[in-house]
Automatic annotation (TrEMBL), chain A:
<dbReference type="InterPro" id="IPR044293">
    <property type="entry name" value="PRE"/>
</dbReference>
<dbReference type="GO" id="GO:0040008">
    <property type="term" value="P:regulation of growth"/>
</dbReference>
<keyword id="KW-0341">Growth regulation</keyword>
<protein>
    <recommendedName>
        <fullName>BHLH domain-containing protein</fullName>
    </recommendedName>
</protein>
<keyword id="KW-0804">Transcription</keyword>
<dbReference type="Pfam" id="PF23174">
    <property type="entry name" value="bHLH_ILI"/>
</dbReference>
<dbReference type="InterPro" id="IPR011598">
    <property type="entry name" value="bHLH_dom"/>
</dbReference>
<keyword id="KW-0805">Transcription regulation</keyword>
<dbReference type="GO" id="GO:0046983">
    <property type="term" value="F:protein dimerization activity"/>
</dbReference>
<feature type="domain" description="BHLH">
    <location>
        <begin position="5"/>
        <end position="59"/>
    </location>
</feature>
<dbReference type="GO" id="GO:0006355">
    <property type="term" value="P:regulation of DNA-templated transcription"/>
</dbReference>
Amino acid sequence: MSTRRSRSRQAGAGRITDEQIDDLMSKLQAILPEARLGRNDRVSAAKVLQEACGYIRSLHREMDDLSERLSELLSTTEMSSAQAAVVRSLLM
Amino acid sequence: MVALRFLRALSLVRCSGPGARSPSYRARGIRRAAYACMAASAGPRRAWSRALLRKIRRRPGRGLRRPRAVIRRRRPVGGGDPLEVALRRLVPGGGCMEYCRLLEEAADYVKCLAMQVRLMQTIVDSASHVNSID
């Protein structure tokens, strides 16, 4: 906890309280998948940051992978029928 | 709706001549479209979406290349914590924000990224299903 105060975070609009940071940390923690953080309510800030970075990296990799697969599928599929199938599945 | 925007973008990639381009070129185009649609749907209220759209529109090879050292609007925040530095690098536009703002933007970015990934997975699954029927 003491390391937080040594960071230059007070510059800008007023002091930022530890409570505000805790609140934002818990919001970030809520977004991350449970599998990454376990079911503990109290997870350290460092753990949240670490898992957030790991999750973002894995999402970037998934985007790359899915882009490759979509590129292959576009070359073999009639897009209009695929689009129709997708719109149907999204509407259901 | 981000889904329709992305489908429209995909159909444009398809129309641009599948025979003439390599699959990896098309894949890069699709990835760029995915990030662009994601950022456009988030709108200008988010710093990450603005930064992402700026980056996409400023593709290398188009016009003069801007020297990297020149004119940042704000000084990048010097990092002490390597985890904070890593997060700043991963979130678009994260280099110059206050810490609180970084956490807010990171949460929104993760949410939108996850949604985009789910959308693309749905499209891949549906298109694969269509392929297997024929």
